[in-house]
Amino acid sequence: MKSNKRSDFADEWFEKYDEKIVKQKTERVSEDMTLKWIQIKDNDLKMQRGDYVTLSFERMDDAVKRNQISEKLIEILDKICIDYLLNRILVVGLGNEEMISDSIGPKTIAQILVSAHLFEYEEHVHPGLNNCAAIAPKVMGQTGLESARIVKGIVDFYKPQCVIVIDALATDRFSRINRAIQVSNIGIIPGSGVGNHRLPINEESLHIPVISIGIATVTTIGSILKEMNLEDTLENDCIITPRDMDLECRQIVSILSHAINCFIHPAYEEL
């Protein structure tokens, strides 16, 4: 194979690693939903030391199924953030809204219930709401600035206790596109899965906890050929995404926005 492995998913990188380096636990949530929790203990590996939780599912074509995925995602966020203060949160949606495979971050941000302005200007706020702000910093080609620098400036001003970052991820399996969500407590490096590295958005750069939520939206021709046990003879590996991405993007955004809103605001479903 000439193609290089391009993936942002820990469970794709570390399927057969020594338990002393990578601790793995797999849970069958339902007939068509699987959860895999990976704890990386060695910083010398391809991914940073920390926790990576991947929720894989086969269907999201009806409201009941989407709600089940969303509820499981809330449970994951509760567990991975158990030691964090979460009364003041900044939600960041990375990506380019004009490119459908990279638009999930900005589109999710548009559906987040923001409340920071209420806390700043009103004396009485619903007790089930927490202080939440949201931003979609676009991409460097649109702003001329690294997303990480924009986020850092907002963090310095807003002073959240935690940042939640949403981004599109690369997978090395075509079958996982729009069917896998990875939650991690080590932040994110925008564009890393497609070889377009930017400044990291993580606890080291922001000095507060950073939770990343990534969705598999792209793969490569080389990865597809590998799944089919065929040799890749291309000199350059092309990034591809499914043709029904538009519909499935809306479904993913619905799942993510509902889960994040419920996670941040205890009374969200009552409002």
Query: What is the fourth-level CATH superfamily?
Result: HybD-like
CATH class placement? Alpha Beta
Into how many domains do the coordinates divide? 1
Supply the CATH architecture: 3-Layer(aba) Sandwich
Low-confidence stretches: none
Distance between the termini: 53 Å
Average pLDDT rating: 87
Order of helices and strands: HEEEHEHHEHHEEHEHEH
Q: Which radius of gyration do the C-alpha atoms yield? A: 18 Å
Q: Note the total helix count.
A: 9
Number of strands: 9
- Share of helix among residues? 25-40%
CATH fold-level label? Rossmann fold
- Which word captures the global form? globular
Largest sheet: 9 strands, mixed
Describe, in plain words, how this protein is organized in 3D:
The chain is of the alpha/beta class. The protein has a single domain, classed as HybD-like (Rossmann fold, 3-Layer(aba) Sandwich). 30% of the residues lie in helices and 23% in strands. It is built from nine helices and nine strands. It has helices at 10-13, 63-80, 104-109, 116-121, 140-143, 147-158, 203-206, 221-227, 245-264, and strands at residues 22-30, 33-40, 50-57, 88-93, 131-135, 162-170, 180-184, 210-220, 239-240. Strands 1, 2, 3, 4, 5, 6, 7, 8 and 9 form a nine-stranded mixed sheet that branches. A hairpin with a 2-residue loop joins strand 1 and strand 2. Helix 2 packs across helix 9 (245-264). It is globular and about 65 Å long.
